[in-house]
Design brief:
The chain has 157 residues and is of the alpha+beta class. It has helices at 38-45, 54-67, 69-72, 112-130; strands spanning 24-35, 81-91, 96-107, 138-148, 154-155.
């Protein structure tokens, strides 16, 4: 199993050793969406949700989640994040809340999992904040859209 980076020669899972890697600037962006009923979008816009403003709570939850990614995903390295940003917007035409994250750091390993964790937890928070008025919401389209720095770059086209 030595061809897999997270297994040793005994097929035991291990954290990848990054001690020999150089420090590089890294950026990752991810997105997610929460689809919901039109009435729920209107309740958000008119500040009528019983739990308050879902966007600010979700933004802070996403930032905190990015900072705790290594505590949630077993093989992730703890990283010193330079910047975490979450943008949350209403897409009225499609009855969705769109969530985008951007993570920046200088380190030996990436920021992808932090970006994905940020949007995932922000989406879960939107769900939690709106569930009293809409039980049919769906969290969807959680994906990495850009990664720069390290061995390879990726930009979703």
């Amino acid at each position: 199993m030595s061809e897999f980076s997270h297994y040793d020669s005994n097929a035991t899972s291990v954290m990848v050793d990054v001690s020999g890697k150089g420090i590089t600037s890294r950026i990752a962006r991810a997105e997610a969406a929460v689809s919901m009923q039109r009435e729920t979008i209107e309740a958000i816009e008119n500040k009528l949700l019983p739990k308050g403003d879902p966007f600010e709570v979700a933004r802070v939850a996403g930032i905190l989640a990015a900072k705790k990614t290594s505590e949630l995903i077993p093989m992730c390295h703890p990283l010193l994040l330079n910047y975490v940003d979450l943008q949350i917007k209403i897409d009225r035409d499609n009855c969705k809340i769109r969530i985008n994250s951007e993570i920046r750091l200088d380190g030996k390993t990436g920021a992808e999992m932090e970006a994905l964790t940020a949007v995932s937890v922000a989406a879960l928070t939107i769900y939690d904040m709106c569930k009293a008025v809409d039980k049919s919401m769906v969290i969807e389209q959680c994906r990495l859209i850009e990664k720069r720095g390290g061995k390879s770059d990726f930009i979703l086209k």
